[in-house]
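Action item from last week, closing it out:
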Amino acid sequence: MLDTGILIDYFRKKEKSKSVFFNLTKSYSSFAVSILTKYEIFVGSNETQIIFWNSFFEKIMVIPFDENCLQESVKIYKDLKSKNKLIDIEDIFISGSAIASKLKIATLNKKHFERVKSIELISILP
């Protein structure tokens, strides 16, 4: 599962082959994003950028936020709150979606996601 930062990095790089996403395609053949990642992308996009993103999201699995995602997100929230280590609610929902879908997360925001004990992060090489 790709986090929002991976997608933004890909969009911003003029030379796509230098993006983290491109490098991940060398090791992985399929990718997914949470519907929350899609939300974050669209909220931060103008009309021209949305054309690019619509095309991108047609080629990738978008995981809906369902009851299983909700239950995992609640567990994450309660665990992080008890440790006074809360992260952004979108990141909690994305983590819950990944856990419910049994997917690893590729992220540039390791600081937040590594707080979630039951998530497996994909190593991002420079």
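Closing note: The chain has a mean pLDDT of 95.
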